[in-house]
Structure formats: structure tokens, C-alpha cells
Amino acid sequence: MWGGSCGCSRAPLRPIPRQGCIRAPPFLMPYQWGHPWGELSGAAGMMYGNIEPSQPREGQKWVLGPGGKEACSDPCPMEENPYEPLDPPIAVPSRKHLPDPPARPCCSQERLVLVGAAALGVSVLLNVLLLAIGSRRIAALTVALDEAEMAKQPPNVGCPPCSRGWTYFEDSCYFHSATTSTWESAQRFCLALGTRLLEVDSPKERTYIQTILRDSSWLGITDKEVEGTWKRADGTILPREQSSWHRNEPNGGQQENCAVVRKDGTWFDYPCTSQLPWVCEGQP
């Protein structure tokens, strides 16, 4: 190669085994054809090329180094070079050429996209078949399993049905006050909470109330309108046979128009202005 021309001359050259990879500085350097390996002036940089002449002759031929300004735009490919580098840049016995390591396997993005799309398509198809064929059977089975599981569970499993500070019994929540007030104030307090002052409607409830009472507490009945006719908060009349009056009660006349329940579960009439604890009763 000469001066400003750029190219790799290959056609007229006869390759000599293990010769053609020389170490040279990054500029044009002289090559002496008379020496079997070449006389090198300087040893820096690596250059590849088919540089053998068709026949030995005197004189010098310039070879372009890899760092030169006139570098070939299409250099001879390294993998096609039949020669082996020399290090140091003197004549040395030939070395055994080691095979290149196998290329690492790789997976292209296109293949990953195709695999993902195929998996998504299969998933969609299975879902469609499931909805079209087995949705009704699966739904019926799910409902049956849910009902069976609910039947096994005891009541009040999980969160308590009543708020904190309330107790639960027979589908009702009960709140026992820690202070005292008149009958009217106690009734207003319970109504403000969406509940009512305690009304004992059954023997079971009476027994339960005895376990939570700390002292005599207000009942949600009164005979203010008609003496001797006791009514609940909703205006319904409480029959005598459904009450739990202590013997000889009620006996206070017009001065005792409100009622209390004692710890033993019996009822007494009391003045409505008395200061007593109270119990609110309501639905969960």
C-alpha cells in the first residue's frame, strides 16, 4: 500500500503460514523483504495484514499502521487472518493455535416477545373456555362450599357485633353507665345513641341482666300518663304477666312513676327524679 491510497491488497500475495501479524508502531514503518521474518524498526502497536510479496526483492515497502491517518476503511478481518502475532517482535518458534471459545448462547428480544404473546394467548383461551363451559358449575360449587363453611362457624366469629364498651346477648347490645342520672336524662342519652332504655322482655334476658348489673338501674317503662298502666318507650303497654315486679310492687302512686331493676332481677317503682345508673339496649 502506498501513500494516500487505502485498501487491503490480497490478490497477488502468497500467504506464508504464521506470518503476517507483526507488531509495529502506529505509523508507516519499513519492511525488509530480505529477512524471513522482516527487520522491524521499533516495536509498538499491533497490525494485521497479508503483507508477503509475490517474490522476494530488495527495497522497502511501506505498511500502514493501525493508528495512521490513512487507515483502511475496510481492514482485513481478524478472524480470516491465517497468521499468529509475534510477541516479542522477533523470530520465535511457532506456537500452537488455541481454538476460540464457543459463543455464549443468547436469546433475542424477538423470541421473548413471541413466547410471551403465545403464553398470553393460551391463558386468554383457557379463561374463555372456563367462562363458557364451567362457570355455572364452579359458581354453584363455590356457593355450596361457602354455605357449608358458614354453617360450621359459631356465631360472633371475627369482629365483635357490638362497639367497644358494649356487651352482646341474644341479638342485642347493652351499655351499662358508670354514672347516675334522672330517668328522663337516661332515656334521652339512650335515644341519642339510637337505642332505648333497658326493657326486659324474657326470662333469659332477665337472667343475663343480673350478670351485668352493678347496682339498681333504670328500666325503660313509666306510668306517667295513666297511673298503674306501664308503657314502653314506643308507647306499647306492658302486661302484668310479662313483668317481674317484686311482691307488693308497684306501690308508690303518683310519686313513683318510673321503674328500676335490682341485681336480683326484680322490679320496683321509683321517683323519676332519683339519681341512678342506667342500661341502654339496642341492635348491633
TrEMBL record:
Bilayer-crossing residues are 112-133
**GO molecular function annotations of the record:** carbohydrate binding
- Looking at the record, the residues that make up the C-type lectin domain are 169-281
Entries under SUPFAM superfamilies matching the protein: C-type lectin-like
PROSITE patterns reported for this sequence = C_TYPE_LECTIN_1 (PS00615), C_TYPE_LECTIN_2 (PS50041)
Family matches, as InterPro entries:
C-type_lectin-like, C-type_lectin-like/link_sf, C-type_lectin_CS, C-type_Lectin_Domain_Fam1, CD209-like_CTLD, CTDL_fold
| Keyword vocabulary terms for this entry | Disulfide bond, Glycoprotein, Lectin, Membrane, Transmembrane, Transmembrane helix
Query: What is the name listed in the Swiss-Prot or TrEMBL entry for this protein?
Result: C-type lectin domain-containing protein
The organism is: Anser brachyrhynchus
